[in-house]
Amino acid sequence: MDEEYEDPGFFSTANDSRQEHHQFLAFKRLFLPSIYVVVFICGLLGNSLVLAVYIFYQKLKSVTDLFLMSLPLADLVFVCTLPFWTYASIHEWVFGKYTCKILLGVYTLNFYTSMLTLTCITMDRFIAVVQATKAHNQQAKRMFWGKVICWAIWVTSLLVSLPQIIYGNVSSLDKAVCSYHDNEIPTAVLATQLTLGFFLPLLAMVVCYSIIIKTLLHARGFQKHKSLKIIFLVVGVFLLTQVPFNLVKLVRSTHWEYHAMTSFQYAVIVTEALAYLRACLNPVLYAFVGLKFRKNFWKLVKDVGCLPYLGFSSQWKSEETSKMSSASHNVEATSMFQL
């Protein structure tokens, strides 16, 4: 929620520069609310469906289920803060100082919870594929440590989010904004946040998925190629949504002169909005690709009476059931997405 760049004092008083700045503010007032609304609607719907399936239909029988329950919960709490930011981006911040601190803290808490959970999902899939037999034999022990890790993720994320809570405040610029300034937070804290929020998940994906790909290439079965495609999709989406914004954050925290450049502020806005899309894409990438989850999802759709209105014929449902049955009988131990 980067609002600090609205200070007109950062910009040149030349007519061209002032005009460019006003054009940027007009773009931001239109672009940000649009992104917030899209992410809120899609993220609320997708993550709520995932939670509903796990709560009512899919018991938490594995470590994977634990992480896939924690991930949409974190994303759901994040998207619930977006209506406040939507109103503030259109008008100004009217919710008070303490609400500002709480929402900045909630936003940051759930960002790091989500990213650390993605890291754990990656490592869990690595163990499930590369050490499949060992993972199966130690299922009870892994469940215990999975619960411990889930709690540790939330506590760690809360601690890492404290600077945003402490330094968050309402400032009066051209309008009242809720923000915090990077230059108020110690460099070591910013480095820790960047490590947990980007470099650690990226390192986990590169190392674990590289070994998983090597393992799958030596495996047999129809699931191999599908699993490889999903791996490339997961890594590709992560890089596309997270790399640009984190690079911009890194530049902003090390080169203060960029704060005075309107073009750089465009980069901040666009890359941050791109990073928010993870809240919409996570349910698809980490839950709906699982055959077991999809089966339980269709049970939910059927039980709430939506299936006839969606135009699905009985023939299509029988074909889908046949595919799931075939997949469950042919899947190998090295398949990572039979969740």
From TrEMBL:
It is found in: Cell membrane. Residues 46-286 form the G-protein coupled receptors family 1 profile domain. InterPro entries: CCR1-9-like (IPR050119), Chemokine_CXCR6 (IPR002235), Chemokine_rcpt (IPR000355), GPCR_Rhodpsn (IPR000276), GPCR_Rhodpsn_7TM (IPR017452). Pfam families: 7tm_1. It is a multi-pass membrane protein. Keywords: Cell membrane, Disulfide bond, G-protein coupled receptor, Glycoprotein, Membrane, Receptor, Transducer, Transmembrane, Transmembrane helix. The keyword Transmembrane applies. It comes from the Eukaryota. This is C-X-C chemokine receptor type 6. It comes from Echinops telfairi. The lineage of its organism: Eukaryota, Metazoa, Chordata, Craniata, Vertebrata. The gene is CXCR6.
